[in-house]
Amino acid sequence: CLHARKKPAPKRLMAEWQKGDAAWCYINDDVTYEAGKIVELGEDDRSVTLKLASGKTLTTERANVLRANKDKQDGVEDNTFLRELNEATILHNVGVRYAKSEGGIYSTTGHILIAVNPFRQLKIYEEAQIKRYLGKPIGSEPPHIYAIADRMYRLLLSSGDSQAIIVSGPSGAGKTETCKLVLKHLAYVTKHLSEAGMSKSSMELGALLVMTNPLLEAFGNAETNLNRNSSRFGKFTQIHVSKKGAILGASIQTYLLEATRVVVHAERNCNYHIFYQIVAGLSSSEKASCQLESDANKYAYLRNATGKATARPGGRVGGGGDAAEFKDSLSVLQKIGVSEKLIASLWETLSGLLALGNITYGETVNGDACIQNTKALGTACKLLQCHDALLQQGLTSRTLKLKGGEMQVPLKQEEAESARDALAKAVYGKLFSWIVTQINTALIDKDTKLDDTGFLGILDIYGFENFERNSLEQLLINFTNEQLHQHFAIALFKTEQEIYKSEGIVWPGVEWEDNTACLEAISGKGGSIFNLLTEHSRLPKSSDASMTEGLLNEHRKSKHISPPKMGSKGGRGTGAGTKLTGKEAFVIAHFAGSVMYQTAGWLKKNTDSLHEDLSLCMSSSSAPILKDLFSVGSINAFTGGSKGGGKRAGFVADKYQKQLDDLMRTLRATSSHFVRCIK
Taking Cα atoms as reference points, which of 44, 92, 103, 42 lies closest to residue 66? Predict the structure, then answer.
């Protein structure tokens, strides 16, 4: 469906309307707009009565009514050609085009491409279609992602300025598939070009870029109730291009992998694809070596909130299933040069994480945690290739350093379960970063000089989120969208109008909502959310409740941060559970709507700390991958932290903010192109 904004349309003056005028009437967030005709104008200049297409007669506020176009205008390629250009007419035009033909999934608003997810395979992406758009200006052919990709590539060659395409939209709208099509176009247009001294041709690098997607998706994508192949991380791909137009190499930067999914996921959700792929795809002998069961239900980390593993009849994209997709992942690992020894170690480590999740706890007579099923512990130790006693100690106690010595402090059962899950998340996060590093190593030669070259950037990042329960992860995701929204507004409105003004062009001006104040409230100086979160994360006796109270007190006069309304129960006000207070949640008025964030567990999530006993246990592992990932000096290289560490280097929100600041600086230095995916 095509979702409209959650607030009414702007008011119209009575003089603009006449009886019999065609109009769109805003109904609600689910139906959005319905067509109708005006039958009565209220004398109070505030109401209007319409006869709707459904046959109903409705009296509503004038603010809920927008003008409609004549039928002959329906289905235009560029929305700016609509006589009446408003939210309702754009949604209607996009819907009409979608129903007409395969190519109708695309429309434009100026140079902004709108792409509707068709949820099926189409014939408009064949090689002949790429040829159709080569060298053609925007508007000379029907709207298509190939047209945007070709324009971006040609502008880089003609101007030398780096280009970036920003693909946005909600989960399941087709962002990742759109990015794949941009890569497919680039691989085609560069296939006959080459640069001297390169170990791989432009054709090989282009093909490799496209080919690595299944591996990234296996480790970074998961099934959700909205999307069978949802990206649970952000990705910015930079393709370096020579002045001749040949691909010199590429690199991938990833953002905010959803680590919690490794250990817990909701009903109708799954863990990352790779776990199900090894369960279905490893041979009998490989499974025996990994002590791996063939039934996903045998593993706690693969069971969802119902206690059962989510059925996966068609794998991540409804094709040949997990077994077939495992072969794709394995093929990519082999083609990017990962040795058979490391591949075997990778499968063992992943299997070890599944065994780790099956470790259960009980309590001693003193109320301390103790491991109940030593079989799962033994399996995990064997696969992670670490010492049994060290792992058991790390999972049931922690070392407390004192002046002149140290002592072992037993963990309570809940603390021990958290330690087990923290280890699983830490190992998987490092494995994901290791996979990205292997891909990047294959995509660019270390001796390639890039100083005098431009790049094409492709940003595929999560859309705005508002669930029944929103936590720190949703805040970081929505903060990203706030940043991108500002970049979009500045690139399209502010910068363009400044050019008009400098050239003396008479222009009535376009008003746009500046979200700087919201960004400052989240990440600015002083009492911003991130600063207060860091401050309370440092304090040994602080709590989520005191952090939330302090935040609301700091922003008691803010337009963007407020306490939950009386009776609020969740992110959308319909969730179950007890009513939330100012100690448990706060609300941010984002550009895309207000979101309530529940703060339980935030301080723990923000520290993201794996206690030292478990880190040392992993660093002593003899597994080829693990011993490198947890060795001294390697942690920062695989997590994005700074060597030596600053005062705030260890906090999740601070590290992510720094990563995002770097990304935004890169985007601002490029010419940006925008694609909005909808469903």
Answer: 92
What is the helix (H) or strand (E) element at residue 489, kind and residue range?
Answer: helix 472-489
Q: Confirm whether 329 is a catalytic residue.
A: no
Q: What predicted TM-score, i.e. pTM, was given to this entire model?
A: 0.88
Least trusted range by pLDDT, from 35-49, 218-232, 627-641: 627-641
666 is catalytic: no
CB neighbours of residue 371 within 10 Å:
17
Q: Which two tokens stand for residue 301?
A: 């980390």
State how far the alpha carbon of 44 is from the alpha carbons of 9, 37, 41, 49, 62, in Å.
19, 19, 9, 12, 10
| 362 CB-near residues (< 8 Å, 6+ apart) | 369, 370, 371, 372, 413
Active-site residue, from 36, 75, 172, 357: 172
Residue 609 among the catalytic residues: no
Residues 149 and 202 sit within 8 Å (Cβ to Cβ)? no
pLDDT digits (tens, 9 = 90+) for 424-468: 999 999 999 999 999 999 998 877 888 778 999 999 988 888 888
CA atoms of 289 and 252, how far apart (whole Å): 33
Q: Dihedral of the CA atoms 79, 80, 85, 90 (nearest 10)?
A: 10
Tens digits of per-residue pLDDT, 188-202?
999 988 887 787 888
The verdict on whether 463 is a catalytic residue reads: yes
Query: What spatial distance separates the first Cα and last Cα of the chain, rounded to whole Å?
Result: 6
Cβ-Cβ contacts under 8 Å for 556 (sequence gap 6 or more)? none
Q: 671 catalytic, yes or no? A: no
Segments of 448-581 assigned E as strands: 454-460, 561-562
By C-alpha distance, which of 579, 590, 575, 565 is closest to 477? Answer: 590
620 carries an active-site annotation: no
The contacts of residue 375 (CB under 8 Å, 6+ apart) are none
> Which tokens sit at 339?
């040795």
Q: Which helix (H) or strand (E) holds 441?
A: helix 413-443
Q: Which of 609, 618, 595 is nearest to 651 (CA)?
A: 609
Q: Concatenated DSSP letters for 50-97?
A: EEETTS-EEEEEGGGEEE---GGGTT-SBGGG-SS-SHHHHHHHHHHH
Q: Report strand pairing: 405-410 vs 397-402.
A: antiparallel
- The residues, any chain, with a CB within 8 Å of residue 140's CB and separated by 6 or more, are none
Give Cα 627 to chain centroid, integer Å. 30
568 is catalytic: no
Residue 8 DSSP one-character state: P
